[in-house]
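Hi V.,

You were right to ask for the full record rather than a summary. Here it is.
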Amino acid sequence: MPRPVWSGAISFGLVTIPIKVLPATENHSISFRQYHLEDMSRVRTRKVCEIDGKQLTNAEIGKGYEISKDTIVAVTDAELDEMPLPTAKAIEIAAFVPYESVDPIRIGEGYYLQADGQVAAKPYTLLRKALERNSKAAVAKFAWHGRERLGLLRVQDGVILLHAMKWDDEVRDPQELAPKAVDVSDEEIDRAVLLIDSMTTDGITGQEWSTDRYTQALEQVIEAKAGGKKPPEPAEEEAPAGQVLDLMAALQESVSKAQASRGESGGSGKDATVHEMPKKRTAKKTTGKKTAAKKSTATKTTAGKKTTAKKRGA
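Predicted structure:
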């Protein structure tokens, strides 16, 4: 496990639970360095004072809020730590809510909460078991990284998790993005529900599609170039099986392929793919083949007529 990023306590009514906060996720993204194209030398970001041009170390740099162009109010780390907030060193539970009532768009990064010492073991376990039995999540407030934040506590695999959350005013209203009213038939909705059912799994973990293919491909490119080889060619995607002319046909084809991929009846046995309806101009790609086929058919037909005419003449 990584090192704790914060320590404090969970305030649960009159119960206090000392805890340590540890990151629950890891970042496996590949990071790049900037370099000079001419000589491949590193390009670095340096912190320089605008007045004397001196390069500064982190110890020489402080925080400040700019209230006007020429006026900055300095704020020290000690002042931030000593702010008169009840949540400065505590995760204060404000209420309990059904977990499904929380809009996922409000849920941010996750952290594991570890009981800090033997004294914290019993109240920690008490809160965990109470949350499990009640099937609720706790909404809490805490101060972190210079600001008070909203949090969500839930239980997973015997451990209490803390999720940072967005405040009400940090979530934009999506109403203006909704499309204009359109007519959708019950049959189309039923077919879409059938497609959802045919693509439903028990979870995300361990699924074949639950893989970061971009990072894998990037690693192959870097490995090839490091060995003086040419990067691998991208694999050609399989073209859609046929032209889909309407929404119902698209839904039906998608359901059949999804069922086939799961070994259910009613499919063609190929991997499931859901694709957009091709535009009319894509039909031009097959014009040459169709024309050749027509010529071939016409030739055969003409030859047949000539043979029949000879027989009649005889």
